[in-house]
Amino acid sequence: MTTAPVASAPKKGSRLNRNNIPTTLIVTLIPVCVALNIVGGYIASALRLPVYLDMIGTAISAIVLGPWWGALVGVLTNGGSALISGPVSLPFALVNIVGALIWGYGVRSWKLGRTIPRFFLLNVIVAVACTIVAAPIIVLVFGGATGNGADALTGTFLAVGQNLVGSVFSSNILTSLADKIIGGFVALAIIEALPKSLTADIDIVKATPLKGILLAVAGVVVGVLIIVVFLAINAGASA
Amino acid sequence: MSMQAALPVAMIPGNSIIHRINPIAKLVWVVGYVVLAFSTQNIVVLYSMALFALLLAPIAGITKPLLKGALILVPVGSSLLALQIIAPAVERPWTPVGEIGPLTLYGDGIYYGFVLLGRIVASLLLALVMVMTTHPSDLFTSLSKLKVPYTLNFMLAMTLQLIPVFQREVGIIMSAQKSRGMKGKGFSAVLPSFVPVFVGAIERVQQLSISLESRGFGSNGIKTSYRQVRGRPSDWVIGIVGALALGGLSAYSIWRGTWNISSDIVFSPLFVVVTFVISATLFFGVVLFAVFLSLKK
């Protein structure tokens, strides 16, 4: 008796990566993640949100495909943005790469995706790391300006006597925390909705409604705001 | 929700002399512009570069869309100048030139502020001219001739195709959600808008992946392109002149230690104060306008 070949079974010698996902699927998934990153910012502004949500595709690709595929998504996001709106966004590819590596290794190697608190912590780590990378770029390339409302916060920190790098770091960490935590949990919801063939080997918790997360984000942001204001006032007093 | 106009920067069809230049020659100029912009602190050079890029716009017939695309510089440019006046990114001691409320204004940072702004303006304007006068397929065909892996080209080309598709789908999905009585803005609308768009796209690319696999994507051999891009002698001249001129100026700037001419230019205290007031007003105007839009039903 002969059995019919299973359509989805990979052929002997077909090109699969370590996730057992065909290379052609990865090649087509990556542009989707890149486009989601680029369009994410526009969706956020259309929904009138005070966050960017421009790294959701990076988070998804880093978690589902692997950290270095996520890094490639980060590079292509800023490369693609450069083709659309000029090369000024290119240096921020570094921020995207760092975010991808931490999300990818965090979930796949350090098991920080197993529970909601762990995943929350992972997003906080991503936010802090992204700010550490982004703040010097903002100062060196844009003289501390980003062109959004956070610059008013930077100006306030400068007015109380903090230096430029410290002020940019302080304002960026606040926006980054809100952005990366919310973005991370949106990515989690999307990952849960993906076909099981893509997510079978990922040890990650089920998505949770955003309402509870938003309260936690508000708490974290207010806590960090109190700390950075305290540090800025101290810096101003000692200057 | 009008998502269609969210990305105004795209190729403007035309047959001008700028449109006909080989994409690689244009790319040489853009890369040269970025290298020169970030290796010099000479504001005369920087704003001459910006002016040159601006002069190309009427030749290419893209003046209006170029100026529209350059509008993204207003918030970043205005906040950049304002921040540099209250916290110069140069070594202390700083020279105070005035006070406005709790803010002390310094004259030292304004030159560096104009340098940073000039870098962004010059690089952005020429990049916009290239993007608005180059068919994306021509660019990717040219890049593949430069031995850029075709997989990378494919991914970039597919990204550019997907962006308007995603924008359109988000608009459709948001309209559908609103017709069901769901909120069309705020955090409660995030998951109902992101998840269907992304999951729908994933399902479609799975079919595309099978299609690519069946057509031998990734196999060895010469890759052909529907669009043919040829380099004429004039393209070579434009590319070589660009590489020599911009490379030469970059080398000269580095040799002169960034070619900073701040000691030759004196900004009066009144100019510094007026620049701060204008840029801060412009920045807060943009922020308040954004807040007004977000509060408007």
Automatic annotation (TrEMBL), chain A:
Keyword DNA repair: no
Source organism (scientific name): Antiquaquibacter soli
Keyword list, A-Z: Membrane, Transmembrane, Transmembrane helix
Protein name as annotated: ECF transporter S component
Domain of life per record: Bacteria
Transmembrane segments: 20-44, 51-69, 89-107, 119-144, 212-233
UniProtKB/TrEMBL annotation, chain B:
Membrane topology per record: Multi-pass membrane protein
Alphabetical keyword list: Cell membrane, Membrane, Transmembrane, Transmembrane helix
Protein localization: Membrane
Keyword Nucleus: no
Transmembrane annotation, as ranges: 21-38, 44-63, 70-90, 110-129, 236-255, 267-295
Ranges in coiled-coil conformation: none
Principal cellular location given in the protein's record: membrane
Superkingdom classification of source: Bacteria
Protein name, as recorded: Energy-coupling factor transporter transmembrane component T
